Amino acid sequence: MKFTEHLIIAVDFDGTIVEDAYPKIGKPMMFAFETLKKMQEKGHRLILWTYRYGTRLDEAVSFCEENGVFFYAVNRSFPEEELNENMSRKIHADLFIDDRNVGGFFGWGEIYQMLTNTNPTTTVQKKGFFDFFK
User: Fold this and answer.
1) Are 75 and 50 in contact (CB under 8 A)?
2) Model-level pTM greater than 0.85?
């Protein structure tokens, strides 16, 4: 699958961009910042979509910026979005990258290859949702 259009991609922070060390900031995941920068260069809009808020959120955003990744929006669908209790907190995005996906986190190398269709990978059979109950 190759994505030629510009996508809105929501990306989790802890356990996805960095190793999970919440409330601290973990070490960057291998190829995370390189992949995110490449996605931005290709015109995709990145949204930081995380449980963090307040000072912890500011730290995460700063950490990403120090590593060359600047988000289109943070915990909202677009920068000007005003949140209130009468509106859904669900983010509007074409793709979500999160370590809590069913089947787990693929890794940034595989995500990049899936999005760009570069270097075809050998297919690894992932466990399906119901395999976890066997």
Assistant:
1) yes
2) no
